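Retro notes, item 3 of 5
We never archived the inputs for the calcium ion complex last cycle. Fixing that now. Sequence and ligand:
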Amino acid sequence: MRILIVEDEKEISELLARRLRANKYEVDVAEDGEKGLFLARTNDYSLIILDYNLPKRDGRQVCKIIRQEGVDLPIIMLTVKSELENKVDMLDLGVDDYVTKPFFLDEFMSRIKALLRRPKRVEREIITVGDLVINKNNFKVKRKDKEIYLTRKEFMLLVYLVKNKNRVISSEAILEHVWDINADPFSHTVKTHIMNLRRKIDSEFKAKLIHTVTSRGYMVSVEK
Ligand code: CA
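Structure as it came back at the time:
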């Protein structure tokens, strides 16, 4: 299991990382909210330990964005008492648990273990837009009764767009979510993949699902 620690106080992040690694967890550490958000979007974590007061983006913002994007994993927030307005506020943010500093490492570890034992909230496996049906379980895509064969990247791109249907998604956002860190932002990767998706999904149908929004990006929707 891989855990992300977002904490600017080195002493704390090192203490936690050491203990977690000793318990056979893989650990990544981000020192600010910006990097934390980037790692949370890029990698597949089992849990995030998120400090409240962080440079660049605070824990509240990071948590909000992660939840808005539909990432559903346990988040445990680190706060000092004065930062904590109230418990309800904390839980409203989509935090699963919180720990106030200073904390006892043993207690913290048992909280983490309790969160990891929780049954995973099941992500919806079938997503749709109009007559297009995507089954994330078996990677099958169908439009009306026609089965559509996609490459792995095309599939990931389509899932990302359909999850964000009716919203304009920029090429940069697509690159960030669907490609890895080393993708060349100046290449025509996104454009080419969108073109291929269109050919496979839209070309034979009168109602188009993938739309280009001039100079802003792409949008999947039933109507333009
Ligand atoms: Ca801090």
